[in-house]
Amino acid sequence: MSGNTASSILVRGVNWIGDAVMTMPALWSVRKAFPDAPISLLVKPSVAPVFERDPAVDEIILYEDCFRTAFGRFKLAYRLRKKHFSKAILLQNAFDAALLAFLAGIPERIGYDRDRRGFLLTHPVSFNGEDRKIHHIAYYLTLLKAVGMPVFYQQPWIRLSLDERRTARERLAALPRPILGINPGAAYGSAKRWLPQRFAEVAQWFIKDRGGGVVIFGGPKEAATAEEIEKLIGSEASGVGHRALLSLSGRTTVRELISLIAACDVLVTNDSGPMHLGYAVGTPLVTIFGSTSPQLTGPVGYGNRIVRKGFSCGPCFERTCDTGDLRCMYTITSEEVFFTVKELLPKRPAVFFDRDGTLCRDAHYLKRWEDFELLPGVERLGVLKDAGFALIGVSNQSGVSRGIVNEAFVKEVNRMFTEEFGFDAFYYCSHGPDDYCSCRKPEPGMLVRARAEHGIDLQRSYLVGDKDDDMLTAKAAGATAILVTTGKQQSSAHADITVNSLDEAVRVILRNEDGRD
Hints:
Elements: E1 9-12, H1 17-22, H2 24-33, E2 39-43, E3 59-62, H3 70-81, E4 87-90, H4 95-103, E5 108-112, E6 123-125, H5 136-146, H6 162-171, E7 179-183, H7 196-210, E8 213-216, H8 223-236, H9 240-244, E9 245-247, H10 254-262, E10 266-270, H11 273-279, E11 285-288, H12 294-297, E12 304-307, H13 327-330, H14 334-344, E13 350-353, H15 382-386, E14 390-396, H16 407-420, E15 425-429, H17 445-454, E16 462-465, H18 468-477, E17 480-484, E18 497-499, H19 502-516
Parallel strand pairs: 1-2, 1-4, 2-3, 4-5, 5-6, 7-8, 7-10, 8-9, 10-11, 11-12, 13-14, 13-16, 14-15, 16-17, 17-18
Helix pairs in contact: 2-5, 3-4, 6-10, 7-8, 7-14
């Protein structure tokens, strides 16, 4: 394969939403390997929304149904030829993907040697059934590694706009919190679908035991199943279900579905596309596995639980049960799923703090103790713990990846806050702005991790920081944004509250909590 320059690259994406999410680390690896090359992604319209705001993609080309005919293929190939791609990376396994790249005259064509298409590829990668042995995220990365491309793993992450997040929260605002999402469908087949009755039982217990709200997700084909679950909840929850239940099956676009899942506190789901969307926005998952294997397609990231039963016949990877008893699903009870949900529910609020400019003076890449200076008020933060808050630091530290700051020193400074000032945790993001991570503010990945590891209720939490990125992080997570004017900025259009010191931030938070009580 040629070096790390390319005039333009075509990536043929996969056809299912869940698979599309699992290709994200490979797509980001292509971007990092060829940072200056325009990258076009060819995918079906049903999958395109997953990549709508992805910074690794410069252009999305839709593979419309009209291109599936022989004439359509030649028509699309002609359009692609005019774009003068120098390289095609075929994440899709189909013969059609290789044929299209060949017809488009793309000089380098990289893909797995599957479906008898090897003769159409300039760089065929041998295939030995590895997709039944390794997680599919690794399967796509292995393709790139096999042709000498450097690869790196970042957890799949779907970027949402602040407006998308706000609209989703407004749509669910009538439901009491916490909010449980349930996804009873799975397009692959009945062997991946848990029983509607048991989804309904989990929802009933959640409403009665936790006083929360339930939202049902699904596509148009799952509308009948959603309606059945809705009726079971409504008739057996003594009227409470009607007030705490919202069915959105068949009533969302893909982007709306992604945003709504992000707004849930927990999602109970089959192994399905929405499951992959769930971990790609950081929502804690309880995933029910039947005929498939979590080792191959299971959720990644923080705060997820798998519920499955092991039988000698599984995982069979069949769409329907050959034995006819579907024991891998029938033996999973609603009780064990509900108690797993309870383990993941948020337990307490937190006050998140940026570090440089908020807790200590901003020394512009703090890298030695001689430049470290605590700001007034840090010693009083313990009163927030006495009021029931967790104290958690969240800091961008791109100086680590830039080679400016020693990572050991970052850890040493952060450890000082946990050991001397009672912080429950101190997270930092060492990535740069081009690393496509979920943790670099204003993305809320560090807060999402804290939710999973410390049971944090993000919507009852606060984030205190000195920059717009801090305020936007709070907004993305649903927390209250407090700007402290001790660092970079004296004002922010994204702040809910502006204070002049940490002392004032503490007073405002305690006063707000008194008002909530």
